[in-house]
Amino acid sequence: MTAAPTLVPGLEGIPIAESGFSLVEGAVGRLSYRGYSIEDITGPQNTFEEIIALLHDGELPKQARIDEVVKDLQTKRSLTPEQIELARNAAKITHPMFALQAAVAVLGPMVNDFEPHVDTADERGMNLVAKVGHLVGVIAQAVAGRPYEAPKPTDTHAQMLLRMITGNEPSELDTRVMNALLILQADHSSSNAGTFTARVVTSTKAEPEAVVSSAIGALSGPAHGGANEHSLRLFETIRDPERANAQIERMLNDGYKIPGFGHRVYHVKDPRSKVIQKLADEVIKPGTELADLYSIALTVEDVATARLGDRGLFPNVDLFSGCVFAAIGVPTDFFTTLFAASRTVGWVLNMKEQWESGNRIFRPSQIYKGPAIREYKPLSTR
Q1: Active-site annotation holder among 72, 155, 174, 318
Q2: What pLDDT sits at residue 2?
Q3: Total structural domains in the chain?
Q4: Hey, which of 72, 148, 289, 357 has its CA 20 to 30 A from 365?
């Protein structure tokens, strides 16, 4: 007799792929890329392009390889006037994440038959990394009511994003912080919702642009990438650091789920949040309104950890990242678009890895809970 299937909500604990890019060790609070701890590759000397090379090649790159990636992104980020116009028009009628999802989808070709061209996955993937970042800048300019201004030819990825989003010349400190934020969010195993979505859509043999557009849709949800926006808005609602303790206690008593707190995998403090707090100490100026918001974030950590830490709930990457994004001039609605711009690296690498694994289409089963087969009654007899 065959045993009845067992439902596993959210597929928790079910391996969905073998992957060699990043390892999330939840019990000890460690994240590593290709074996290198995230704390060791987000220092002042590290750039997003360096980590793209590491993730792609599997080894720490020499300067010549980093320069090659810089040049490759600069070359590939160009957009057609039609693509720019579509992104700007979408930005006028919807949230930046939805505008980005639509704009990325129409980067796809006029044909829909990727399998004969799988050998171009690296090229198409790097094109997407370059262009998604550019599109974030295009949408930011439109939302701010500024005319389109192209990236400078010599801009790195971090410099391009800062210049286009803020409209200002990026400082050395802000560029360094942006590089660290991009690195932190570049990959996080193949089993998170966005990357799993990328794997599922890849398994249908879809075009790379459809893969990334679908993953952006998954990332837009507040239970995934959108929590950083919600965290900062919570702090803005509290406003006064003196009120934070009592208000957070009251919210927890009412069963409110604090955005940016708790993680499905990490049962200790998210290692990315530790890196972000170091960045916050550097970039958030004392005595400012943003410093008050960050003080509220720290109070949230203290109060919620005291209440929930024994259940394995601690700050994740989203609790503090909004404060740091805001400190370098990024508007709240663009926190998650920057997450998408960095995570595109992980998505396209997982796409390629999915193809290399044999690319069997995902087809899980279900447990049917509806009625048994019934006799159909014609309309005249019902």
Answers
A1: 318
A2: 63
A3: 2
A4: 357
